[in-house]
């Protein structure tokens, strides 16, 4: 079985990472969505969900036994300490499931896989990747995007963004950086340029 070429895709909230992941998918990459994996590991009755309840309070579990994501986010993402604590609980289970998913896709014959993960570096899943791509944008642009996308108070948006790393955290750890402060057309051109370079790396031409 040929080795799969795995690209890690990351970036802060509001950077436009999901749009980039869609472009990768449209250009022959199988995408593993870390957010979907994260939802799987906290399903009703899971050990991870029980641990979150112990650490962040029983009220993060709704009456029907499922995770109250909004309340957990308010508690965890309001500080860097809370974010790090949440990550320490969820990341080991996420890493395990991602490795399983990669093996499943490899067995199905996919040789180009993108792992779309907001917390790629924090979860140490970057070590699974051959190359890493970060999508970044200015704080002002990201605030406006999240405001337009989510029904969330501005103060909460700013708390989430302030609890994240500076952009240099992403750019210094990545092989490729896509700057997304402009139009969707510009984003597509920049992304396709990176896809082309990654294909050249995979094929050993550069």
Walk me through what this model shows.
By secondary structure, the chain is an alpha/beta fold. The chain is 53% helix and 12% strand. It is built from nine helices and five strands, in the order βαβααααββαααβα. Strands 2-3-1-4-5 form a five-stranded parallel sheet, sandwiched between helices. α2 crosses α5 and α6 crosses α7. It is globular. The two termini are 23 Å apart. The mean pLDDT is 92.
The portion of residues forming beta strands comes to: 5-15%
Report the mean per-residue pLDDT as an integer: 92
Strand-pairing-aware structural class: alpha/beta
- How many runs of DSSP E, i.e. beta strands? 5
Distance between the termini: 23 Å
How would you classify the quaternary structure? single chain
The helicity comes to 40-55%
Rg from alpha-carbon coordinates? 18 Å
Q: Which residues sit in consecutive blocks of at least 5 with pLDDT less than 50?
A: none
Order of strands across the main sheet: 2-3-1-4-5
SSE layout and pairing:
Elements: E1 5-10, H1 17-26, E2 30-33, H2 34-41, H3 47-56, H4 69-76, H5 80-107, E3 112-116, E4 131-136, H6 139-149, H7 154-162, H8 167-171, E5 176-179, H9 184-203
Parallel strand pairs: 1-3, 1-4, 2-3, 4-5
Helix pairs in contact: 2-5, 6-7
């Amino acid at each position: 079985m040929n080795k799969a070429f795995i690209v890690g895709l990351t970036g802060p909230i509001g950077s436009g990472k999901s749009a980039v992941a869609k472009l990768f998918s449209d250009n022959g990459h199988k995408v593993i969505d870390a957010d979907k994996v994260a939802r799987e590991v906290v399903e009703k009755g899971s050990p991870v969900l029980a641990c979150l309840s112990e650490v962040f309070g029983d009220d993060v579990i709704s009456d029907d036994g499922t995770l109250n994501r909004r309340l957990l986010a308010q508690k965890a993402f309001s500080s860097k300490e809370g974010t790090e604590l949440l990550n320490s609980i969820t990341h080991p289970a996420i890493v395990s499931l991602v490795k399983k998913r990669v093996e499943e896709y490899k067995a199905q014959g996919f040789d180009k896989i993108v792992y779309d993960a907001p917390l790629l570096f924090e979860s140490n899943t970057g070590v699974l990747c051959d190359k890493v791509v970060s999508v970044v944008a200015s704080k002002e642009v990201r605030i406006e995007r999240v405001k337009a996308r989510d029904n969330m108070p501005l103060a909460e948006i700013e708390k989430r963004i302030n609890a994240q790393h500076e952009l240099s955290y992403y750019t210094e750890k990545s092989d490729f950086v896509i700057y997304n402060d402009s139009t969707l057309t510009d984003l597509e051109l920049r992304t396709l340029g990176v896809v082309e370079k990654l294909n050249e790396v995979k094929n050993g031409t550069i």
